[in-house]
Automatic annotation (TrEMBL):
The keyword Signal applies. Residues 1-19 form the signal peptide. InterPro entries: SsuA/THI5. This is ABC transporter substrate-binding protein.
Length: 456
C-alpha cells in the first residue's frame, strides 16, 4: 500500500449574514471581503473523529449550519495524521477548533491552560470505547509472539504521547514489564511505524484506530493485544479555543450542532458513512466499517462521567513521560455547556438522554459484495452458517464481537474455539488462551471447520 498522503489543506466558502467585525480571526481576502476564516484541524483517517472531521466535511453539515446564521464565513479544513500538530496550530492561534484522542487532548489542555489567549476546552466526544478497544498492539503475521509479554526486550513502534502509546504503557505495566526499560519504544508516526513493521525494523506496533484494523485487513499484521482487555475508557473529542468559544458562541454551537447532524447520519446510515469516509481517505471501506459499524466505536457526543474520570486517570501516564508542561485542571478544561445548548437547539434526543445511553450492543454482521445493506445475525453460530451458505456471493467482510472483551473484529482474522455446542470468536490468541484456562474443554478450530459445524 502506498504511504498515506501528507497533511492537506482545503477550504470551503459559505455566505452568511453576520458581519466579521470584532472577530478574533482575521478576515480572509481570498473569499468575500468581509469573510472570516474558521480553521478546523482534524485527522481524516482517525475513524473516531469522523463526526467532527471527515464525514462532517464530506456532508457539508458545518457549512449548512453556518449559512443559517447569516454573514460570511470561510471554513478551512486542515488534515493531520495525529493530534500534536493540531495543538501546535492552536497555540499559534492558527486553528480555532480541533479533534484528537484523549492523551493529545490532555497535552493540549496542559500546554494552553496557562494563557487566556491560548486556553482550550473539551466540548464534546466524537468517539469512545468504555473498555479501551480503540487502541491495539499488532505484530507481523509471521511473528512467533502469542501475547504482549512475548515482546519483552523487543522494539515496538508507537507515537509517544498518543492514546496507542498510553495503552501500551498501561498493558505492559499490568504485566509487570517496565514500559521504559522492558521494551524499546520507537517514537514514530503511524504510517512510518507501519512501514517499519513491514520491513522488520520493529517487532510490534502500538497505535490507535484505524491503523490496527487497517493493517490486519491488508494482511500486513496480526492483532496481538486487544486494548479492550484493559477495561479503561478511551475517547476522542472536540477541543476549541476558549476565547473563540466565548466571543463566537454561535459559531461553536453551529459546529456542535453539525457534529450532531453527522452523528445522526452515521448512526442511521453506517454503511453509507463508511463508504463516504473510505472514498475521501483512501482507506478500505471494510476497515472503516469495522469501527463505525454497529457494535464498534460509540459515537455518543456526551461528556459522560466515566470518560472524564478516565481523563483524570490518564494524567498520571502523561506526567510519567514528561508530556505535561504545567498541571491541568480537568474540571476547568471540560465544558459541557455549549454541547448542552447545541442539543437543545438541535431537537430530537436530549443531552441527558445522551448521557444515559448505554454502550453499543454486540453485533454479528456480514457484508456481502454488491449489497446496499449488511446482514446481522443473533449469534456467532448463525453468522458462521451465513458464511457457509453464502453460495456464490462474495463476502466483503464479516464482523464478530470478542467473546470476552466485546471488541468488534473481523471474523476471518479471529481465533475460534468450540466450547460444547458453542462456537466462540476471540480477537486475539491471548484472549482465547485465557478463556481456555477457565474452560479446559474448549478446543481451537479453524474458521472453515467452524463454518462446517455451524451448517450441520
Amino acid at each position: 500500500m502506498p504511504h498515506l498522503p501528507r497533511p492537506a489543506l482545503a477550504a470551503l466558502t459559505v455566505a452568511v449574514a453576520v458581519a466579521a467585525a470584532g472577530c478574533s480571526v482575521a478576515p480572509d481576502s481570498s473569499g468575500p471581503t468581509d469573510a472570516t476564516t474558521i480553521v478546523v484541524g482534524y485527522q481524516s483517517k482517525t475513524i473516531d473523529t469522523v463526526t467532527a472531521g471527515t464525514l462532517l466535511r464530506d456532508k457539508g453539515f458545518f457549512e449548512k449550519r453556518l449559512a443559517a446564521l447569516g454573514g460570511h464565513y470561510r471554513v478551512e479544513w486542515q488534515d493531520y495524521d495525529t493530534g500534536a500538530p493540531i495543538t501546535t496550530g492552536m497555540i499559534a492561534g492558527k486553528i480555532q477548533i480541533g479533534s484528537m484522542g484523549d492523551y493529545p487532548l490532555l497535552i493540549n489542555g496542559s500546554r494552553t491552560q496557562q494563557d487566556p489567549a491560548t486556553e482550550t476546552q473539551l466540548l464534546s466526544v466524537t468517539g469512545s470505547s468504555a473498555t479501551g478497544a480503540l487502541n491495539d498492539v499488532v505484530v507481523a503475521p509471521s511473528s512467533p509472539a502469542r501475547t504482549l509479554a512475548d515482546l519483552r526486550g523487543k522494539r515496538i513502534s508507537a507515537s509517544v504521547g498518543s492514546a496507542g502509546h498510553g495503552t501500551l504503557v498501561n498493558a505492559l505495566t499490568r504485566l509487570g514489564i517496565d514500559p521504559v526499560t522492558g521494551v524499546s519504544v520507537v517514537n514514530q508516526q503511524p504510517q512510518v511505524g507501519a512501514s517499519a513493521l513491514d520491513s522488520g525494523q520493529v517487532d510490534g506496533l502500538a497505535q490507535f484506530v484505524a491503523w490496527p484494523g487497517l493493517l490486519v485487513f491488508q494482511n500486513r499484521a496480526r492483532l496481538l493485544y486487544d486494548g479492550g482487555a484493559l477495561g479503561i475508557p478511551t475517547l476522542h473529542g472536540v477541543i476549541a479555543n476558549k476565547r473563540f468559544t466565548d466571543t463566537h458562541a454561535d459559531v461553536v454551537r453551529a459546529f456542535l450542532e453539525a457534529q450532531l447532524d453527522a452523528t445522526d447520519y452515521l448512526q442511521q446510515h453506517p454503511l453509507d458513512a463508511a463508504l463516504a469516509v473510505a472514498k475521501d481517505t483512501g482507506l478500505p471501506a471494510e476497515a472503516v466499517y469495522l469501527y463505525n459499524g454497529p457494535g464498534g466505536t460509540d459515537f455518543d457526543p456526551a461528556l459522560r462521567t466515566d470518560l472524564i474520570d478516565a481523563l483524570r486517570g490518564d494524567t498520571t501516564y502523561l506526567k510519567s513521560i514528561g508530556q505535561f508542561d504545567h498541571p491541568l485542571d480537568v474540571a476547568r478544561f471540560v465544558d459541557p455547556a455549549p454541547l448542552q445548548q447545541a442539543y437543545a437547539d438541535h431537537g430530537g434526543a436530549t443531552y441527558q438522554a445522551a448521557l444515559a445511553a448505554g454502550a453499543p450492543a454486540r453485533v454479528n454482521e456480514v457484508w456481502f459484495d454488491g449489497a446496499t445493506t449488511t446482514q446481522t445475525e443473533a449469534t456467532p453460530e448463525l453468522l458462521l452458517k451465513a458464511l457457509a451458505t453464502a453460495g456464490g456471493r462474495k463476502v466483503r467482510a464479516a464482523y464478530v464481537p470478542d467473546t470476552v472483551t466485546g471488541t468488534r473484529w473481523f471474523a476471518d482474522r479471529s481465533v475460534w474455539l468450540r466450547d460444547g455446542r458453542q462456537l466462540l470468536p476471540f480477537a486475539t490468541q491471548d484472549t482465547a488462551d485465557r478463556y481456555r484456562t477457565e474452560h479446559p474443554g474448549a478446543q481451537q478450530i479453524s474458521l472453515a471447520d467452524a463454518e462446517r459445524e455451524a451448517d450441520r
